[in-house]
Fold:
Amino acid sequence: MRHGNDGREGTGVNAVAQTGHRRLAVGRMAGDRRRVWPWQRTTLAALAVAACAAPFVLEPYRVFQLTMVLVYGIALLGLNLVVGHGGRVSLGHGAFLAIGAYIAAIMTGRLGVPYPLALPVAALVTFGLGLALGRPALRLSGPYLAVVTFVTAAVVPPVIKRFGTVTGGSMGLSVPVPSPPSWTGLAEDQWLYLLVLAVAAVAFAAARNLLESRAGRALTAVRENPAAAEILGVRPGSHRALAFGWSAMYAGVAGTLYAWVVGFVSPDSFTVTLSIVLLAAVVIGGPGSLAGPLLGGVFVTFVPAAAQRAGDAIPGIVSGLLIIVVVCFAPTGLAGLLRMAAGGVARRLGRG
Amino acid sequence: MTGGMSYGAARAVARSTPRGAARGPAVRGAAVRGAAMAAALVLVLPLGGCRLTGGPEAVATGSCAGQQVTGITEDTVKVGGIYPLSGPASAYGLIASGVRAYFGHVNDGGGVDGRKIEFLVRDDGYQPARAVEEVRRLVELEEVFTIFQTVGTPSTAAVRDYAGRRRVPQVFVATGASRWGTDGGYPWTIGYQPSYVAEARVYAQHLKETMPWATVAVLYQNDDFGRDLRDGFADAIRGSEVRIVAEQSYEVTDPGVQGQLANLASSGADVLLSVTTPKFGAQALAVDAAVTSWNPLHILNSVAVSPAVMETVDTGKVPEIVSAVYQKDPANPEWEDDPAVEVYRRSLLSYAPEADPAAPQTVFGWTVAQAFVEALRRMECPTREGLLEAVRNLDDVPVDTLLPGITLSTGPGDGFPIESMMLARFEEGHWAPFGKVIDTRAVFGPVRTASEDSPAGSSAG
Amino acid sequence: MAGLLLQIVQGLSLGAVYAGLALALVLVHRFNGIVNFAQGELAMLSAYVAWQLLDAGLPFWAALPVTLAVSLVGGMLVERSIIRRVEGDRELAPVAVTVGLMVFVNAAAGLVWSFAVRSFPNPFPAALSFGSAQSGFSALGVLGVVAVMMLLLHAFFRHTGAGLIMRAVAADPVAARLSGVRVGRVLGLGWGLAAAVGAIAGILVAPLLFLEPNMMGGVLVYAFAAAVVGGFRDPVAAVVAGLGLGVAETLAGTYVAFVGADLKVIVPLLVIVAVLVLRRGPAGTAGTAGQW
Structure:
């Protein structure tokens, strides 16, 4: 099922692939969608109820953390379309996040536009940009895409600073926090959480639909074997570009939500570190799965904060090691492990 | 879109197990689930307003009625600080060590008015978003009395909206941006150290007095810090014969400033004003030393001063290095027998042995903690509002590790506790102050505006 | 004019460092087909090793070979323990692993040596004056070291048995394996050599930029641009591009008004995009791939 050659790689890669120094990525095969957990709907319903009840039972800080998990989850869902489902690496999604966040900050903070309007604008702008950039970008072979996106991410903060009259320069911009309509009687953090949860629910449903559609399957086909897919009539370029557009849109929407939740945007929030963190979260969460992005969001939100207790440099060490270990030993990420565990539990229950 | 033929083909390629056959219902299922979730949300909304956890804010009674007493009791006061303990700016994490040492010292002596200080430190890695997360943790989860220090302008700016909204004092922030003192919209946030504008004025004053026809080359970091200081300097020399003849900026992400320095050197200016952070300040000093045909007076802004940087200076090649100071340098033999420095050294050994006593950041932490304790002592009401009142009405409060003649003063419309500095020359491994204390407020008047919306783009030399 | 000369010399000295790191990137990519995002951090680590040795009292020219040997072995160990598991995988795994390595090494260096800035002794005499312009000997020294490094690598690949074997593996691993070459060892050696070359870049750059864990972050971007010019295959093109980038970056910051010093970092991005656009077609195969 695995082919090292996508028709454009330099000779080194193919050749290495045939020398025995490679490993089968179990469970990453496109068709492996066997249902391992028989009570999917019940579980999902329970999760949905829990998600809706959370802001009413948890402390404000925990609600805020959950909101951040969802925001990152949406961004990662987008990145996962390119990385997990498309099989290409982007280290520049922080840039789309920045665009979405700045659109929210400028529209609501500077121009005084009602805040909900920022969401569709950010989505449209980033989708258009992603679509436009996607085609040339995805034609780049092998590691070039990763390199170009990495360098692009590095350029983001200075560019934001250069257009300081619009962006507020290095001092950043405050973003007014969306206040709940008075009839709800909700606190700010609860309102924000529910807002983000609603967007996340739509985002996940849309991603699921997209992946189950012919476009999604074509994407998988292209990832697994571009040459074969092309022979069969799938045009890799258009599918990948479309996926890139969707992916950028998710990042842009997440950026807008991020600006609402954090209440402040500045160039220092969108350094290359952010893009690295996003890629790490996709890999650790589980590339190519729907649960992966959520688990990745949990990772981004909780692990650095927890690791901090152990020492100053520990978060970096933990994250770095986790990426390496997950890629080498559990390429399906946390989602894959969860799937395996669920399968085990289900089998045991089924037997008993 | 691909045609029907390719659809089937893609399906064939993409699927290797027969079990995935009946997908149609699942697709619809997902959509239905999304809609159901949205509907659930709508149903839940009217139930809102209630929360099963967290009571109302604790408030005081008596003469201070209605004021917030969260985080303060008869015998403890809980204080939270956010520092860059990891990441590129983690050198400033030393501030936390200095603070911890002073609080330890105070607690050993019985605390402040019988209250022991409980100091919680969180790491933001110099990322504004993390700072917001950490401040919420401190305020909402740990329920601290006050945010004592955030480090750096981005993190401070990110936090101050929240602090203002929650009405939590954010006191003595460790950044010299002039907006903390001038921005009336944020009464809950107050600075501490001399603003970058004040520092720029000290340099300008020195040049006006000693080198009235000096030409100046400026190297500055392209952010609020660099621009604040550069603009302040340009303002302060207005009307004199001192002129800026060359300017170069750099980004913190640049590898080095060699190119910028080469450019500045070709201006042949009499003075190099280096508005940098330690790493780039060190690079600038090294290039200045290497270029033997250009020997300007090297003004190093106080942010760039660190022992590791000064260690590297070849004083034979960079004849005169000047900076502005306001606290005692423990490396200076003049303070060898100073009781305040003595206590500092001793306490640091027992409470923060890992910290370098000679680092200005450590002294800074110790000194600002002392200022904070002075403010706590001056609270009339032991409440958040009372603390704010106290830090906003400091009147010539002395702190023993500040240079003699420099005290803390704030008042209505004046949010800058320290506005006086001295010049110091780097000699024999320490900073030797010279001249008199320059009170920038007396000489130049109050700092007027923050360089808030200063148009960018004027930097290209 | 003197100013221009000074800028060019400063640009070249930084450019030589970009070139060195680009060379390391090219070496790794030729043997493993991997772009090593951690190359800069490994170089930083080597510089810290050298600093530690110097701190222990070793003279510079004794610490240098020790550091190179440590880097060589370290590089081979990294390849053997981690990289081998993802060799031959497509994009994601190699990129993710090297990015993880980058994050890890950066944090680990911060843990061991702290994030404080340290000075690193300059192995070359400090100053030299020529004509009216004056500049560091170090700039010329750095250039010289990179040139010597290139020559040594060339000699190694062209005129030694080991070099021949390595070239065979780079050209066609399967054929090499069928001829009895132990391909795995060669791939490891490729990583080791790259780590050693990177170590030289790190040691050269440390006196200029001062030693701290984030030292190579900015350099890596430029090294990437230089390596892209060489198609990640052509060492000579990569080195020339590195030098050119150093100069171009310095001059563009000064003479191109829109770029200005604050947008200098856009130069490598422009170079990469220009190369990829101009080259058209499958990137990575252009250039004189048969060098060495």
In short: The longest strand of chain B covers residues 430-439. Chain B has 15 helices and 14 strands. The two ends of chain B are 51 Å apart (CA to CA). The CA atoms of residues 12 and 18 of chain B lie 10 Å apart.
